[in-house]
Amino acid sequence: MARYAYFEGRVVDLEDARISVMTHAFNYGTACFEGIRAYWNEERRQLYLFRVREHYQRMLNSAKILRIRSALTLDQLVEVTLEILRRNGDREDVYVRPLFYKSERAIGVRLHGLSDDFTLFAVPFGPYLDVEKPIRARVSSWRHVGDNVIPMRAKISGSYVNAALAKSEAAEDGYDEAIFLTEDGHVSEGSAENLFLVRNGRLITTPVYADILEGITRATILQLATEQLHLPVEERPIDRTELYVADEVFLVGTGAQVSAVGEIDHRPVGDGAMGPITRRIQRLYFEVVKGNVPEYRHWLTPVYQE
Ligand code: PMP
């Protein structure tokens, strides 16, 4: 099936969306991106983008930090996304990857005085982490980049070297995922997920100043947990050893969705099985993203004509 991309201001075959080896972003990591999911609802024969406007708002914030000016407004970014998805015509879950990047073909590391551009592609995408059974995680030997190193408030391509170092270390040592500590030794987040834990019926997550990406799934879960499950929630620093004594731990993100953590640094989380609160949150999340909960349908953008 033909697959399309938005590249240099127009729709092209995905195969033809190519940058030069001299492109600044390729040399220096000077790009920022988003990962957006679209969920296929078989009953409604509809593909729903989840919180697409929030993703583009974050991406415009990332661009601002990187001194990239968007030629497209937020509405136009959404329109381009819909156009590519409609052209691709997928009838399964899809992952959308838009990027702003420094497109100048130039040597010299800087942010100012360079041309920039926008590109987008989309591919079918299943689970990123196991969502059926709990995963095994380790605390990474790599510290997380901080706000004064490479800010995580912006989803910057270059900062994902830090994530890749941690993920490969974990994977090659037999774990599913890495958990980062901040430079000052508090829990930050997973390599591509925000982290939650449950202790004595309270839902706890790291605050934004723990050098985390301001996750859209994280915000979604905090809202659903409060409004639907009536759970007390706390955003506060988490110590490494609090992970070891938590009743439940789970990781959340667009890719990861809601994934239970069953073991951290060889200590079982709770009894090692998926905890009841994690299970309730995961079920509710999947219902919401698929468009089965009317109250939250405003978070969804249908791709095909209704
Ligand atoms: N943290 C990092 C480092 C990530 O890459 C992601 C995935 N975008 C997340 C957290 C989760 O963010 P979101 O829920 O907005 O996808």
Automatic annotation (TrEMBL):
Keyword Amino-acid biosynthesis: yes
Obligatory cofactor(s): pyridoxal 5'-phosphate
Name of the protein in question: Branched-chain-amino-acid aminotransferase
GO molecular-function term, one example from the UniProt record: branched-chain-amino-acid transaminase activity
The reaction(s) this protein catalyses: L-valine + 2-oxoglutarate = 3-methyl-2-oxobutanoate + L-glutamate; L-leucine + 2-oxoglutarate = 4-methyl-2-oxopentanoate + L-glutamate; L-isoleucine + 2-oxoglutarate = (S)-3-methyl-2-oxopentanoate + L-glutamate
Superkingdom, taxonomy of origin: Bacteria
Enzyme Commission number(s): 2.6.1.42
Alphabetic keyword roster: Amino-acid biosynthesis, Aminotransferase, Branched-chain amino acid biosynthesis, Pyridoxal phosphate, Transferase
Taxonomy of the source species: Bacteria, Bacillati, Bacillota, Limnochordia, Limnochordales
Pathway recorded for this protein: Amino-acid biosynthesis; L-valine biosynthesis; L-valine from pyruvate: step 4/4; Amino-acid biosynthesis; L-isoleucine biosynthesis; L-isoleucine from 2-oxobutanoate: step 4/4; Amino-acid biosynthesis; L-leucine biosynthesis; L-leucine from 3-methyl-2-oxobutanoate: step 4/4
Gene3D superfamilies attached to this UniProt entry: 3.30.470.10, D-amino Acid Aminotransferase, subunit A, domain 2
Keyword NAD applies: no
Family: Belongs to the class-IV pyridoxal-phosphate-dependent aminotransferase family.
Cited function: Acts on leucine, isoleucine and valine.
